Amino acid sequence: MYLARGVHCLVGETMRLPTLIPQTLPWSAASVCVALLGALGCEAQEPVSLEVTVENISPETSIYAANAMRSEQPLDEPGVLGSDETWSCVVPARADLHLQVLAKLDGFDDVYVAAQPGGLPIGSGDGDLAEGRHSSALALWDAGDADQPKTSARPPHRAPISPFEFGVDAGSDGPTRASEAEALVDLSTRVLDDSTLEVRLHNRTSDDATVPTPIGEIELSAGVCLVMDPDAQVFAEGAPASAELLALASEGDPQPLLRELPRLSSSLSSVLWAQHDGDAALYDPGELASPGLEQFAEDGFVLTRLHELDFSPTVDAHGLAAPTNGWELAPGQRVRFELDAYPGDRLTLMSAYFAANDFIVGTSRPGIPLFDQGVPNIGEQEVFVQLVDVGTEVDEAPGIGPNQYARQPAPGGGWVEDARVEIVDHRAEPWAYPRASEIMRVSVALVEDDPS
Asked: Which pLDDT band, with edges at 50, 70 and 90, does 418 fall under?
């Protein structure tokens, strides 16, 4: 603590001179220092009280993986699954999750094949992944976009998603939509290891009359396979289709859907923050992680990192913001903390991202400027948030790996990785991650004076 932390001089901008008047000086010596500052044309400046809010904005349900389906052999036409051809994809999986497969039915404006909106179980019931045929779980769906204007300045009214049948009226004795889908394609899974599944989609149609297809030979395109929570959905019967689903069902383009996924639900740790007026950092891209950063990223442990910050010459103040009901920040929860700031101050913060083995989400270097040309920098600070791999543990499929926070047998588990801290791209290989702005929201506000 210091008697005067911010001073303003006639010869320059506001300066923070915390070593000028330490409180350990006798009062007479401190008075002399104040007099000297006055003679230099300097005056003490009051700090501005700011409230920082950090919110976990990740969704409550997860779609863990979204992969394009590809052929093992050259296709007659790239991206099209013709008669008697097979697509496959390999996805990370857990026995408690569901599988969803989508593909456009070519020759129809907006018809696609998929399982029921909640997908189909991929577990055996005893905690292991299951393999076998799942064709009976597939159905045909109408995305509700046929004959709609595509160039109107106003978004067109779209019909809701509904089951599709080949000219069969409801209540007739004709084939159901499920049996029609099963006649067109065959869906199967094969277990590759404890957390990996191979998904195969085979086009069963041909000119062979022994194959009972409703319309004869067909082609499919834009195949996508997803692994998701049982209560997650990419579409809902009776609801309008998303723009991403319409791109797949109407235009045969799976990329908009793939770009928007994965959609991971993840808890965060309590928020560690540091206030500084120079170049200070809670992590350094390109450098090896400290022991405190390693413990924080892997398990949310904060004591070692706090102790490291106690001895940092570039940090003026630091602390921990924890939710009132524990130290884990669930989706939808937020924490707040207050600080006294001067022009030139910056804020750096971070939280462990528990969907990964050793990731944090936090502010980029050199931190959030708390003032802009002398005025408090109020509002959301999205541009400063990023996802970071601290490089201490081998990465596993996000939200699925057995050595991640929620599933590891003990803290510090997992295979050691001696890599350097690096910023994570949204489409990092071999896994895809949400954007940092889809995980954490940081905002700054003025502390309102108590009217009492």
From this structure: confident
Buried b / exposed e along 35-70 (16+ C-beta atoms within 10 A): eebeeeebeebeebebebebbbebbeebbbbbbebe
The DSSP H or E segment spanning 38 is helix 27-39
User: For all residues of the chain together, what is the average pLDDT?
Assistant: 82
pLDDT digits (tens, 9 = 90+) for 58-102: 999 999 988 999 886 655 555 789 888 999 999 999 999 999 999
Query: Which residues of the chain are in CATH 2.60.40.2130 domains?
Result: 49-59+265-446
**Are the beta carbons of 253 and 222 closer than 8 angstroms?**
yes
CA dist., res. 343 & res. 260, Å (int):
39
- C-alpha 122/C-alpha 1 separation (Å) is 59
Residues in CB range of 270: below 8 A, 6 or more apart: 300, 302, 320, 321, 322, 323, 327, 328, 329, 335, 351
Beta carbons of 321 and 302 less than 8 angstroms apart = no
Tokens matching residue 235? 């579409």
Q: Tokens 């993840």 appear where?
A: 266
Architecture of domain 49-59+265-446: Sandwich (2.60)
| Half-sphere exposure for 26 (CA within 13 Å, toward CB) | 3
Q: What are phi and psi of 243, to 5 degrees?
A: -60, -35
* Residues sharing a CB contact under 8 Å with residue 224, sequence separation 6 or more, in sequence order: 66, 67, 68, 69, 101, 102, 103, 248, 254, 257, 258
- Beta-carbon neighbour count of residue 156 at 10 Å? 11
| Euclidean distance between CA atoms 83 and 86, whole angstroms | 9
E strands, 145-219, are 162-163, 185-193, 196-203
Give whole-number Cα distances, 325 to 174, 270, 306, 322, in Å.
56, 11, 21, 8
Render pLDDT for 223-263 as a digit per residue (tens, 0 to 9): 999 999 999 999 999 999 999 999 999 999 999 998 888 88
Report the alpha-carbon distance of residue 198 to residue 196 in Å, rounded: 7
Two tokens at 55?
């919110």
**Residues forming a β-bridge with 320:** 272
